[in-house]
Amino acid sequence: MPGATMPALTGDRETDWAAFETAYRDTTDQVPDLRDQLAVVTLQAIVAALDDNHARWTHDVRRPPDHYDGDGYGLGLTTNVTAAQADTNPATAVAPLFVTTVHGGAAQAAHLRPGDIIEAINESAPFIDGKATPAVTALYPEYPEARPVRLRLLRQSTGRRWNVTLRPGLYQRDLASLQVVRSKLLDDDIAYVRMTGFASDSANRVFKAVARLRTGRTLSGVVLDLRGNGGGSPTEAARLLSAFVHGKVTAYQCTVDARCEASPTDDTVELLGLPLAVLTDRGCASACEHFSSAVKDLRLGHLVGTRTAGVVSGPAQPYLLADNTLLSFPDRHHLGPAREVIDRIGVPPDHHVPLTPEDAATGRDPALAKALTLLHK
């Protein structure tokens, strides 16, 4: 359609949207059978053009048949390259690509193990010139994607090389892994708390977990494991930080014209008064980076592991559209306590301790071991 072009834009919001609507309607009216499809791809393109990791349009959400709450969908594995890295930030991934966790499903049925190196995905290399390739995204299919994925694998402990084809599907996840906050005592004096998201009331759950482990003993410190924590509520991040410091700014939320609002600590939260070590990786994103950057800038403890995701453009505001789909995007951008940009950069650890295939294969956790050493000094 030669007339399917953008109108001239002036910079005036109302004028430009009216001109766009006119051009859009003139075009789509000529192909009424494609009107719904064009509406979808147009809004997808508008959101993509924002180039914002917190902007999304939620529509046509479907679940597989026989799905139960807590079920997973996919190949049943996690690797050292996250889905977000593979999709939007491949340059941050580090070779080799290897399995870190087997959750169930096809990966479990094929007897894959942590530490298995993935040398090829659908006959394509996962890394070229040190940069992750789009092939890696095939490891993280979402319903209804059901195409089989062929892998070439290497198990370093035995030298075995083999091929396997995995088909995406439903699998039952370990119920314990679905808990947002899990805790245990390490070395008789360290409270270890794993937190998978900054969900509502998650800060209080951490406080209760530490208090329970503290009962009847003297603790030497807290290890807060935020690896794989995809974020959530910035309010919960600020509240959790408030257990380690009072009277500080944990982040800034700034408008496009540089008017910034501070996110202060909640000084009604009781201080724990314990040394802190925080475990981070490329799966720590959004509110997790809010927390990690404040720990670093305010010198509240040690960051141990690898750099965070760099996915913290700003808190997204949801807007319900007339067709009951949800459009979300930030109206402010996030800065750390030192007013530094974290988005697309991430928070570097104080102690860089990456996981290796050998660590994954033998169940070693070098980042946790380093954190325990630091807290015992």
- Uncertain segments are none
Order of neighbouring strands in the sheet with most strands: 11-12-13-16-17-21
The outline comes out as: globular
Total helices: the number is 9
Largest sheet: 6 strands, mixed
Radius of gyration: 23 Å
Overall average residue pLDDT: 95
How does the helix and strand content classify structurally?
alpha+beta
Assembly type: single chain
Question: Between the first and last Cα atoms, what is the distance in angstroms?
Answer: 71 Å
Number of strands: 21
The helicity comes to 10-25%
Our estimate of the beta-strand percent is 15-25%
| Order of H and E elements | HHEEEHEHEEEEEEEEHEHEEEHEEEEEHH
Describe the structure.
β8 and β9 form a beta hairpin. The protein has helices at residues 13-28, 35-49, 83-88, 105-109, 202-214, 234-241, 287-297, 357-362, 366-375; strands at residues 56-58, 71-74, 77-79, 99-102, 117-121, 127-128, 131-132, 149-155, 160-166, 169-172, 181-186, 190-195, 221-225, 249-254, 260-264, 276-280, 302-305, 316-320, 326-330, 333-335, 351-352. With 377 residues, it is α+β, with helices and mostly antiparallel strands. The strands form seven sheets. Strands 11-12-13-16-17-21 form a six-stranded mixed beta sheet, sandwiched between helices. It has a three-stranded antiparallel beta sheet with strand order 1-19-18. Strands 5-8-9 form a three-stranded antiparallel beta sheet, with no helix packed on it. The chain is built from nine helices and 21 strands. The radius of gyration is 23 Å and the shape is globular. The mean pLDDT is 95.
